[in-house]
Q: What sequence folds into this?
């Protein structure tokens, strides 16, 4: 039961990660391609900070019906097993314990309410030195850091323009 409880709770947890992209050509070209990609994925630009060289996208991520039903099914199985154990310990209360199975939609409802939220994607442009020497040597290279949910980053890394022209 404890494992089931933590599994349901973790289903709605934020999993924010970062990837670093080193453009082979121009940073502006990469940023425009990323902007087109995220607007096609139903994100919109929420803020741009030219001083810090950041751009933030926001978009509503809807919960999955399949996962809500799956979690409710897992909760039903777990509560049924738990009620069987309790009915062996207290046979006179068997019907009451079997009524615990009626609580199974709580897992799906919890997931549905917590996972339907506005997600943010942050694009940062940084200048880094190509070597481990001082940054005064003039060999500066641009680096684009994308911070987003790990599923969004996994989809982003499969996009053709990232596979062909940029070093992740």
A:
């Amino acid at each position: 039961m404890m494992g089931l409880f933590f599994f349901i709770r973790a289903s709605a947890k934020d999993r924010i990660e970062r990837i670093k992209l080193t453009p082979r050509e121009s940073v502006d070209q990469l940023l425009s391609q990323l902007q087109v990609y995220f607007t096609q994925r139903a994100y919109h630009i929420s803020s741009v900070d030219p001083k810090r060289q950041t751009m933030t996208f926001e978009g509503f991520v809807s919960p999955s019906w399949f996962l809500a039903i799956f979690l409710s099914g897992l909760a039903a199985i777990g509560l049924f097993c738990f009620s069987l154990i309790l009915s062996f310990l207290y046979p006179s209360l068997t019907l009451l314990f079997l009524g615990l199975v009626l609580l199974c939609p709580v897992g799906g409802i919890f997931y549905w309410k917590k996972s339907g939220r506005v997600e943010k994607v942050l694009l940062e442009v940084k200048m880094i030195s190509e070597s481990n020497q001082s940054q005064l040597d003039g060999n500066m290279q641009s680096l684009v850091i994308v911070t987003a949910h790990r599923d969004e980053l996994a989809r982003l890394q499969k996009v053709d323009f990232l596979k062909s022209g940029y070093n992740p």
